[in-house]
From TrEMBL:
Start and end residues of each DUF4062 domain: 26-115
InterPro entries xref list: DUF4062, NACHT-WD_repeat
Domain of life: Eukaryota
Name of the protein in its database record: DUF4062 domain-containing protein
Pfam families recorded: DUF4062
Natural source organism: Adineta steineri
Amino acid sequence: MISSDYQDVLRGRYQHLPDVRSKVVRIFLSSTFSDTMVERDSLIENVFPKLKSYCREKYGLEFQYADMRWGIPTESNNNHSETETCLKEIELCQKYSVATNFVVLLGHRYGCRPTPATIRASLFEQLYSIICSDINDKDDAQLLSQWYQLDTNCIPAVYILRAISSVLPKILSLDTNEVKRAEKEWKKINTRIRTRLRQAATKCLEQQQIQENEYDDFFVSVTEKEIINGILSVPNANERTLCFLREFEDIHEHLSDNKASKYIDLEYLNDGTPIIDNEVEKLLNRLKYTRIPNVLQSENIYKYKIHWTSKGINRDDHIQHIKQFNNDFYHAIQQQIDQCVQSRIMPVSDPLHHEIIEHAIQCKTYVAKFHGRTDILNSARYIMFS
């Protein structure tokens, strides 16, 4: 018996079409950079080729991965769109992957916590007012005015952090020395802006003038934002996402080692003594031990404890860990592919149905981009014939 949806398609009614049937398994790999390099290298060399072969040979699918830690275009850094670039890539993986679409690797690092690229206009003005009210912060208020620009084209209106090159053009210079000087200057400016915005946001939260999610936007890392979009806010996280947690059992005893700062977030006392960044550690622990486990079942979370070495993690001292990690990663992805792929790909038992659906989806795609001018044509017709 022909389903009502199939009959609608045959009659040219395309309101209830299925999603575009992708033939891709596309995974967004979320992580911090310096502390997970060995694992990510090993995935590229040993695991991804096997998954690529498995997908192609068993299901005729293409396996792809997106690892933004291997480089984001310079322009994204200049116009502060790195976070947006990463989040858009997550959306693409969620849209087109027929199985796993997001995997996070976490260690002791929380990740970069950038200055917000956009701030809701009314909120920015609240923050600006708080900063202006402090007589000692007039310079910081002026700095905010210089770097944030009102954009009324957005609805609601927002303040946008200006491109670095619009104020410090030498950051795009071909002279490496000029670039370094500009980057150093921007780092100082950025730190001042970020610090003052966080202080003002904290006052707003205390006075209940700001929502907690907006407050978090000034403090959370890019990695946590990726996890929010990739795991915490999706309905099918346990079917499409995975989490791998790797910790050094004794890293807190080796904070003075040269490599330690690459694996854990540190602050330094006046005498140069390294200590744990407590604010960042609290945010990371909340993410690892509360937020992620509240959404993902234990079968989707893989945990590893390894010993610290003066070289950090390396393939010689941690060969067994890397082998275990590779094996767990491969079989976890393979299992999700097997569970998901059959339900996402339409059987080819009815070639005519398949062909009609393909044409209907293509038609709907083109129509979505079409903007008619009926009102203008009617006005022209009225003028011509009146």
